[in-house]
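We modelled the chain as a single entity of 497 amino acids. Its sequence is:
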Amino acid sequence: MSELLIIKRAMLHRNSIAFKNESSEQTYQHLLDRSEQLAVQLLENESDLNSATVAMLIPADSNFVCVQWAIWRAGGIMLPLCLSATQPEWEYALSDSNTSIVITTQELKHEISDLCNKLNVRLLIIETHHAKKEIVLPTIESSRPAMILYTSGTTNKPKGVLTTHANIEAQIESLIEAWKWKASDRIPLFLPLHHIHGIINVICCAMWSGALVEPFARFDIHAITNRVRQDAYTVFMAVPTIYVKLIQMLESTEKDLRDPIIAGFKNMRLMVSGSAALPATVHDTWFNLTGQKLLERYGMTEIGMALSNPYDGERRPGSVGKPLPGVNIRLKSDSGKFIEVENEPGEIQISGPGVFKEYWNRPQITSESFDEEIWFRTGDMAVIEEGYYRIMGRLSTDIIKSGGYKLSALEIESTLLQHPHISECAVVGIEDETWGEAVAVAVILREGTTLQLEEFREWCRARLSVYKIPKHLVTVAALPKNAMGKVVKKEVSSLFK
């Protein structure tokens, strides 16, 4: 039996602790044994799942890795389901992916059992133990498909991104080299495990390295900072929103309680921010608080991580750095020329062994998503500034075409967040007969503050002039706080008509 590389790597750390929480700990040997038992249960009387899709509704703990490895060792394709998704969302994913088995826990089975019955999908409960059968697990070549992750659809229903074992191995090895993962690392896990950030950047990199993972059911700021106070971690990965919440918490905490937490953050060897743009103000505030320069990077479900600020060297606020090991990148303009100079925007195109295989059952969309068959068209625009890439935003939603200029909504948002009264904002382009699109801003004010509309317009116009925005195009409207999380271009545009 020839094992996958990630399994072989785990075997090197058999006696090390892989997962630990307040009440228990599991070694790598436990994960290996448990995944083998589950693989046998998945196979039943078959010798190989032959790339059947197996969906998993599993909490973010050691069971997730056991199930992940079991699916792979049995020859299946893993499809992690979002724990908080709705029944229609689950049904879409299971139907679209042709899922044949769902594996879950005793606690969660009641939430999905009716749907499995409806779709005639086999349901396997991980706590159900059977006598171990003498089955030789199949040999899994790295070229075989390994995982389907559904991207969030902006204009159509989500698409399944299919990656092979070779793709995943390349993504892991790139980050291991760039971020210097090692067996002595310890990392908290509070990111959801139906996205690439949590699965690859945290779980797979840690397991590949022989590191220790401490799982949390959710981002519990008090529990996590208590462990930070105890110097529990060497690596920390989060999204910008979490760093904002940590800043707010630290700034409102009394000094004698805050200082040990800050010391815990300062002692970590690496802190990473991703999945969304990190405002330069947050980067600077975090550094001033903790002495840590956050490492910002850029990636997508389809390509894994592609760009990163350096582990050693300048970590530049507002930049996502340079290509990671094994990643090829180029910028292509609207006119079709390849950009070889700095400060000229173009679409990011990526090639390399980490790039996904295809969109599940969507050959036409897959073909349209590649240039020259090997360069994935990300749909993101960027410029190179002094050797570093800076993301301007999505071509479809974040790039505002006004008066012949391509303006980045992300840059404008970052500037507006510098206003002392603004806690959140959204920038969109709205239709304008003269300029094509006008720049519009929706804001949420900090509690206890006020802002006069005309005063704010003047503030915006003075600062946005650096983006060459015609001053009379800047309009402002307030957006209810409970709607901010649901901002989409069509909804926001209606506020300005």
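As a brief sanity check on the tokenised model: Confidence is low (pLDDT under 50) at residues 477-497. The domain at 399-496 is CATH 3.30.300.30 (GMP Synthetase; Chain A, domain 3).
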